[in-house]
């Protein structure tokens, strides 16, 4: 089965987010008064796996081994079957 | 002592380090491509600065998962000196050889300027020829140089004297104003607990000849070579 996983990488709560802060400031210059802006990163991964559980497990391993850094990041995985 | 200088796709300070070791200090050094799985015959390794793998994903993250890093880990575990400069520091944290993480500068722009560092610990193979508290002038060039770790781990680093360089002013005082990237506790360089693995954001190879403005970094390489002779 072919699955598509959307992996979202967030900075951990309380961590400084210079990109988000800069965008918030720029939006202010344009006249938009925002409460906060947070930057995230998203990867879309297609993977063949036996089951949804198996696909989720593999993507979770990828996150732990390479895609996220546990010191600074939280991540979430959104998975769907595409074939 | 033969020093391995590790090259990744995107390393760009490799030849500068080679020049300092070979031409300035007269030490045997060789460039080693990242696909090598072994570092037999080398007594020290330096991971130079640059932009390994285009800094895609996090800076240094992809390089940290290559075969050569297993060999670097083995060298480090054998107690040999391993030094990571700038992108090399990022690679060492990403590979788990050093604690913490390097992330985007608090003011998110690339900074290329001289910095003053205070030598906090002279009991390492890289700083034995400096004096404790000595202020040295070494340039930085990075966008992802903000050192971060959680509070408890940071305190452990401090308690174990693993913070080896701190950003300070000319007189040796650390403050927010002289912290170029927002690093916690003005941290510019740390070691592992044993002291034989060093990571630092500033570039000592760019401050190792008076003709280019400072030779304050040269003692770092000299100290490393001396440690190998003992």
Automatic annotation (TrEMBL), chain A:
Q: Which SUPFAM superfamilies match?
A: PurS-like (SSF82697)
Residues that span the membrane, as ranges: none
Q: Where in the cell is it found?
A: Cytoplasm
User: Does the keyword Cytoplasm feature in the UniProt annotation?
Assistant: yes
Name one cellular component (GO) term.
Answer: cytoplasm
Q: Which reaction does it catalyse?
A: N(2)-formyl-N(1)-(5-phospho-beta-D-ribosyl)glycinamide + L-glutamine + ATP + H2O = 2-formamido-N(1)-(5-O-phospho-beta-D-ribosyl)acetamidine + L-glutamate + ADP + phosphate + H(+)
Q: Which keywords has UniProt assigned to this entry?
A: ATP-binding, Cytoplasm, Ligase, Nucleotide-binding, Purine biosynthesis
Which is a GO BP term held by this UniProt record? 'de novo' IMP biosynthetic process
Its pathway?
Answer: Purine metabolism; IMP biosynthesis via de novo pathway; 5-amino-1-(5-phospho-D-ribosyl)imidazole from N(2)-formyl-N(1)-(5-phospho-D-ribosyl)glycinamide: step 1/2
Q: Is the keyword Transport assigned to this protein?
A: no
Record EC number: 6.3.5.3
Where is the major localization of this protein?
cytoplasm
Entries under HAMAP family matching the protein: PurS
Describe the subunit structure.
Answer: Part of the FGAM synthase complex composed of 1 PurL, 1 PurQ and 2 PurS subunits.
Job of this protein: Part of the phosphoribosylformylglycinamidine synthase complex involved in the purines biosynthetic pathway. Catalyzes the ATP-dependent conversion of formylglycinamide ribonucleotide (FGAR) and glutamine to yield formylglycinamidine ribonucleotide (FGAM) and glutamate. The FGAM synthase complex is composed of three subunits. PurQ produces an ammonia molecule by converting glutamine to glutamate. PurL transfers the ammonia molecule to FGAR to form FGAM in an ATP-dependent manner.
- Can you say what this protein is called? Phosphoribosylformylglycinamidine synthase subunit PurS
Organism, by scientific name, is Methanohalophilus mahii (strain ATCC 35705 / DSM 5219 / SLP)
Q: Which gene encodes it?
A: purS
From TrEMBL, chain B:
Pathway membership, UniProt? Purine metabolism; IMP biosynthesis via de novo pathway; 5-amino-1-(5-phospho-D-ribosyl)imidazole from N(2)-formyl-N(1)-(5-phospho-D-ribosyl)glycinamide: step 1/2
Q: Name one GO cellular component term.
A: cytoplasm
What's any GO biological process attached to this entry? 'de novo' IMP biosynthetic process
- Please give the Gene Ontology molecular function terms for this protein: ATP binding; glutaminase activity; phosphoribosylformylglycinamidine synthase activity
Which catalysed reactions does the entry list for this protein?
L-glutamine + H2O = L-glutamate + NH4(+); N(2)-formyl-N(1)-(5-phospho-beta-D-ribosyl)glycinamide + L-glutamine + ATP + H2O = 2-formamido-N(1)-(5-O-phospho-beta-D-ribosyl)acetamidine + L-glutamate + ADP + phosphate + H(+)
Keywords assigned: ATP-binding, Cytoplasm, Glutamine amidotransferase, Hydrolase, Ligase, Nucleotide-binding, Purine biosynthesis
The record ties this protein, via InterPro entries, to: Class_I_gatase-like (IPR029062), PRibForGlyAmidine_synth_PurQ (IPR010075)
> Residues in the active site?
86 (nucleophile), 203, 205
Tell me which EC number(s) this protein carries. 6.3.5.3, 3.5.1.2
Q: Where is the protein found, in the record's own terms?
A: Cytoplasm
The answer to whether the entry has keyword Iron is no
**Which domain of life does this protein belong to?**
Archaea
| Keyword Zinc on entry | no
Where is the major localization of this protein?
Answer: cytoplasm
Report the HAMAP family cross-referenced here.
Answer: PurQ
Task of the protein = Part of the phosphoribosylformylglycinamidine synthase complex involved in the purines biosynthetic pathway. Catalyzes the ATP-dependent conversion of formylglycinamide ribonucleotide (FGAR) and glutamine to yield formylglycinamidine ribonucleotide (FGAM) and glutamate. The FGAM synthase complex is composed of three subunits. PurQ produces an ammonia molecule by converting glutamine to glutamate. PurL transfers the ammonia molecule to FGAR to form FGAM in an ATP-dependent manner.
Subunit info? Part of the FGAM synthase complex composed of 1 PurL, 1 PurQ and 2 PurS subunits.
Protein name per UniProt: Phosphoribosylformylglycinamidine synthase subunit PurQ
Natural source organism: Methanohalophilus mahii (strain ATCC 35705 / DSM 5219 / SLP)
């Amino acid at each position: 089965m072919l699955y598509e996983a959307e992996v979202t990488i967030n900075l951990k709560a309380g961590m400084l987010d210079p990109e988000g802060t800069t965008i918030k400031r720029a939006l202010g210059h344009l006249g938009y008064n925002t409460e906060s802006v947070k930057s995230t990163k998203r990867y879309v991964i297609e993977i063949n796996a036996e089951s949804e559980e198996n696909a989720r497990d593999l993507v979770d391993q990828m996150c732990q081994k390479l895609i996220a850094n546990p010191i600074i990041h939280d991540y979430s995985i959104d998975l769907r079957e595409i074939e | 002592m033969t020093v391995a200088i590790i090259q990744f796709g995107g390393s760009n300070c490799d030849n500068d380090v080679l020049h300092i070791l070979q031409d300035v200090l007269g030490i045997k050094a060789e460039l080693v491509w990242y696909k090598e799985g072994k570092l037999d015959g080398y007594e020290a390794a330096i991971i130079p600065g640059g932009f390994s793998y285009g800094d895609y994903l996090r800076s240094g993250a992809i390089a940290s998962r290559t075969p050569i890093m297993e060999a670097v880990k083995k060298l480090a575990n054998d107690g040999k000196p391993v030094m990571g400069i700038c992108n090399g520091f990022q690679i060492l944290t990403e590979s788990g050889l050093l604690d913490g993480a390097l992330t985007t500068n608090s003011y998110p722009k690339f900074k290329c300027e001289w910095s003053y560092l205070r030598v906090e610990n002279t009991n390492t193979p890289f700083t034995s020829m400096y004096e404790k508290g000595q202020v040295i002038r070494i340039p930085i060039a990075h966008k992802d140089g903000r050192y971060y770790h959680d509070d408890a781990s940071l305190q452990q680093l401090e308690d174990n004297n693993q913070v080896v360089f701190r950003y300070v002013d000319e007189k040796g005082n650390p403050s927010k104003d002289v912290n170029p990237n927002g690093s916690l506790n003005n941290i510019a360089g740390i070691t592992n607990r044993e002291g034989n693995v060093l990571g630092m954001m500033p570039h000592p190879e760019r401050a190792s000849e008076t003709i280019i403005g400072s030779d304050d970094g040269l003692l770092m390489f000299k100290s490393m070579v001396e440690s190998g002779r003992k």
